[in-house]
Amino acid sequence: MAGTYGDSTRSVKAVGAEAIPGLPVSSPPVPAAAYHLAPDEDGSLDSYGRSSNPTWRQLESALARLEGAATALVFGSGMAALTSVLRVVAEPGHTLVVPADGYYQVRAYAKEYLAPRGVTVVEARCAEMCDAARDADVVLAETPSNPGLDVVDLHRLAMTCRAQRTLLVVDNTTATPFGQQPLSLGADLVVASATKALAGHHDVLAGYVAGSQPELMERVQRERLHAGPILGAFEAWLVLRSLGSAGLRFERQCQNAAALALMLRSHPAVHTVRYPGLPEDPSHAVASMQMRRFGGIVAAELGDAQAVHDLVRRSALLIASTSFGGIHTSVDRRARWGDHVSDGFARISLGIEDTDDLVDDVRQALGAG
Ligand SMILES: Cc1ncc(COP(=O)(O)O)c(C=O)c1O
């Protein structure tokens, strides 16, 4: 009963190669720039490495299954996927809504590249997305938002968008397809960075677009073919190899995030904690409706920048690093990158360490407060 499989089973099944006796259980990467051509090549076979690759195809079919999409397309990074989609769907004269409280590079791209080419760029926070969508041609939503972990009501937003033929694109990076499936909630496209929890080892960048509307996906595919922001075959293989354990890792990361959030909310050194899984979190009600898991990131506000540095210095398990979703628990003081947060705001990305070890370690590293 495929519909009732758990996340680890879904991960393992998604990356399974065809069971052909004598062939390896896991497929090797196929690095290829050029392929032998048939005398009358008609585009149905692989011909050139910028247009297709067998390792991409395997990864794309796994990602499509996990997102509940008809197809997926892989890219060289999450930003490559996002910017390719935006170039396709946001045309001159269009109004594009981007998250005001989401990943900052997307706003920068919209302002520095799309706005000068005639796209009106509107920034809206998670809570304002539905209102902003009323006057838009395209909406890009990110939920839970990075780094603030606010949640957008995707069903409501999709209804608003559908009523006026606005295209809805959802960045599913922080939630992952194990946390939520935006397409099933009404999104037209999903974009995501696979660099984070899906690849999960801080060693490869990748991104993808998933969707079920053939004409839309065809346009995104042509953009990839022409602009060429492709994923190398070896990188595609690394992501594929990691994807098989992604369900298992994400389960532990979510468990660690929930336990850490509970400890942090009663620690005197911590001013505020955001985690959509905490019952008192402002996003909890909406998150409970649309998320199957609440994610592996916790946002905590400490007194100041020094308190965040001290936390990492006194800990035996935390590393200071940007990015998230990897096997190590990492802390990123987001003010350093210009996010609109306080100096003591720490985005904590939970790794796969044992829950008790991690919570004990962070408690002692925070000190008495
Ligand atoms: C929500 C979100 N979307 C997209 C990206 C871009 O992904 P990548 O770094 O793989 O280009 C990031 C990167 O941190 C992100 O946090």
TrEMBL record:
GO molecular function, one term: pyridoxal phosphate binding
Any one Pfam family match given in the protein's UniProt record, by short name: Cys_Met_Meta_PP
Cofactor(s) the record lists: pyridoxal 5'-phosphate
Presence of the UniProt keyword Amino-acid biosynthesis in the record: yes
Keywords on record: Amino-acid biosynthesis, Methionine biosynthesis, Pyridoxal phosphate
Subunit structure: Homotetramer.
NCBIfam families from the UniProt entry: PRK07582.1
Protein name: Cys/Met metabolism pyridoxal-phosphate-dependent enzyme
Originating species: Mycolicibacterium vanbaalenii (strain DSM 7251 / JCM 13017 / BCRC 16820 / KCTC 9966 / NRRL B-24157 / PYR-1) (Mycobacterium vanbaalenii)
